[in-house]
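User: I'm writing a short report section on ligand binding and want a predicted complex to refer to. Could you take this sequence and zinc ion and write out the structure as tokens? A short remark afterwards would be nice.
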Amino acid sequence: MSRVTARVHDALNDMLTRSVRARLMALALASAVTALACGGGATSTTPTAPSTTAATTPTTGGTGSGTTSLPAWYAQFGSAVQVSVSGSEVMLRTNSVPDHASYYFGAGHASYEAPHAGMQPNQHRIVGQTVTLRVPVTPSMASTPTDTPLGPIGVAINGVVFFNQYAAQRQPLTFEVLSFDRYNGHPTPTNQYHYHLEPLWLTQAGRSRLLGVLLDGYPAYGPAEAGGAVPSGLDSCNGHTHATSDFPAGMYHYHFTEAVPYLAGCYHGVRGSVG
Ligand SMILES: [Zn+2]
Ligand SMILES: [Zn+2]
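Assistant: Sure. The structure tokens for the complex follow:
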């Protein structure tokens, strides 16, 4: 199979298995909730700083029986995202409805706003639909970076999912960009609202702030470093490693950029799952 064919195959495979995963995810979620309920306030322990070493990584994750506490930086996710830990994974559950105005809410909705000058709206609307992302509590570098799929590749702190640099059929976003609302979001043909580019609503509060997490568990930041400098030395996945206020000991992280891939050209780490 050629590399391109493999990519298309991956994307199709991803879509085909989504409904199956959703059912499995619901089951997993139910058991995770039960585990938390039985855990006796395990969520009250807050780690002082996320570990950047692999020393505390469970050697064989996935049984769901481990009790790992939630890294402190996840507190930056707002109430639109339900965040919990299940074994070696953080589960983030959202309906991807934005907390800001958008044309795509539709006329008559309290958060509707008219299209801005030059906007060429698409035909779709914002409809909340549950998405669950499972990401490693302790991200780890993959032996080889992997392509990001179509569909959600991560989630913002306001609950809106991130998409990659492609439109359907992995076409460039050249024309889709025109349909973005004032905050760089728009809905899919299945009415799922998402961001491909810098989420302007969130970066209004700081261009260097932490904006979310990708499926491999590494955080995503705005288009500037603390102090305002443009991020330098980004790799092919659009990330690099240095200390930030959230990770004083250093952490690999992605940045939103003006140019393609805008957020992540690939996953640097071992990816989790989405359903
Ligand atoms: Zn899109
Ligand atoms: Zn950086």
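A remark for your report: The chain has one domain: 3-36+65-274. Helices lie at 3-38, 200-203.
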